[in-house]
Design brief:
Blueprint (H helix, E strand, L loop, with lengths): L1 E7 L5 H11 L9 E10 L4 E9 L4 E8 L2 H28 L6 H7 L1
Parallel strand pairs: 1-2
Antiparallel strand pairs: 2-3, 3-4
Helix pairs in contact: 1-2
């Protein structure tokens, strides 16, 4: 999984970068499902805008955004949102793969 953290109108300090990577450890269960994470942290007048593009290996991509006055609180909220979405997508894929085929064994025998 590729991870990129960039700042717009904000210098990404080592504290922020280590905090993001520390929080990403919560998503270790999904390392096989994710291709890349692209974080963009923007400082506006009085708040921070934190965005992430999340790309799954099966082609889905999601965009999340959080506006918050505290950058660390915003990162926490964003990771929570991402975790819920990853769990939902993982279940969707597992349910899809677990279904039986449209053609049952009976129809295969009848055609033979």
């Amino acid at each position: 999984m590729n991870t990129e953290v960039k700042g717009v109108h904000l210098e990404i300090s080592e504290d922020i970068r280590t905090y993001v990577y520390k929080k990403l450890q919560r998503l270790d269960f999904a390392r096989d499902y994710l291709v890349d994470l692209l974080f963009t942290l923007t400082q506006e007048k009085r708040c921070f805008k934190i965005e992430v593009n999340l790309n799954f290996r099966w082609g889905n991509s999601n965009h999340f955004r959080v506006d918050c006055f505290d950058i660390f609180e915003g990162i926490d909220k964003l990771i929570d949102k991402m975790e819920l979405k990853i769990i939902k997508e993982k279940r969707k894929i597992q349910d899809h793969k677990g279904q039986t085929s449209v053609r049952t064994d009976e129809t295969i025998l009848e055609e033979s």
